[in-house]
Design goal:
alpha/beta, 6 strands, Uracil-DNA Glycosylase, subunit E, six-stranded mixed sheet
Length: 261
């Protein structure tokens, strides 16, 4: 195959008292094609039109093909994916938003009903909370330079019916897409939000409470674990712990050395 390539004013709204230091400094606009053509200068990619990968392609061959896709082809492949049964109930896929060279990459779990309708991760009340969390660190999903504009994606690109938990096979089928997004972005930090994102990236079944508070690594990239915003809306007492996680992430991102290549 010929495949070719986020202050203080927001903390009150989060319900967090400002007792920890705010780290200044350490998605693509919401427009559908912004990941391929951001206004902030970024490496040019060739918009190569390629056919979607059919579900019948063997898993190893499929993963190998996805591993070489540039942004436009990767987006097309996600939109046309039929590798698991979620394609039958989705309204649309949820690819991701943000700067293609973002310093921060945020990985969530799976699209909900509103994400499925809008085609964007983290919308509704959980998305509003996430945006406030990012603004508290001078980060944003809106158009900005790569040190401020994050990239947001999910482990699954399609909504599970009735917002049920993702199944192991679904996560496995979708994983090559997320892996390729991480490889293309080459972030300085990954913030994993929620149990399924954490377990998928770290290959760990330990609870988030035992994994948070320290820096992990994913393919050499520093990774910080925290709670999903939807969880925080139901468990307000853990917002202060999530703020600790964000401070750790900011300190880690500031200290991270840009990846070569």
């Amino acid at each position: 195959m010929g495949w070719t390539e986020r202050q203080k004013s927001m903390l009150q709204e989060m319900g967090i008292r400002l007792w920890a230091p705010v780290v200044a400094e350490p998605a693509i606009p919401k427009a559908e094609a912004a990941a391929e053509a951001p206004k902030t200068p970024a490496p040019t990619v060739d918009a190569v039109a390629s056919p979607p990968l059919p579900a019948t392609v063997p898993s190893d061959e499929r993963s190998t093909a996805i591993a070489t896709m540039p942004w436009p082809v990767l987006r097309e492949a996600v939109a046309a994916c039929t590798a698991c049964s979620l394609c039958q109930s989705r309204r649309q896929t949820v690819f991701g938003v943000g700067h293609p060279n973002a310093h921060w990459m945020i990985v969530g779990e799976a699209p909900g009903e509103q994400e499925d309708l809008k085609g964007e991760p983290f919308v509704g009340a959980a998305g509003h909370l996430l945006d406030n969390m990012l603004r508290a660190l001078n980060l944003t999903r809106e158009q900005a330079p790569p040190e401020r504009q994050v990239y947001i994606a999910n482990t699954l690109k399609c909504r599970p019916p009735r917002n049920r938990n993702p199944e192991a096979e679904e996560l496995a089928r979708c994983e090559p897409f997320l892996v390729r997004q991480i490889e293309l972005i080459r972030p300085r930090l990954i913030l994993a939000m929620g149990r399924f994102a954490v377990h998928s990236l770290l290959r760990s079944s330990e609870p988030i409470g035992k994994l948070r508070g320290r820096v992990h690594r994913y393919q050499g990239v520093p990774l910080v674990v925290t709670y999903h915003p939807a969880y925080l809306l139901r468990n307000l007492a853990d917002k202060s712990r999530a703020w600790d996680d964000l401070c750790l992430a900011a300190q880690t991102a500031d200290a991270a050395v840009p990846r070569a290549g």
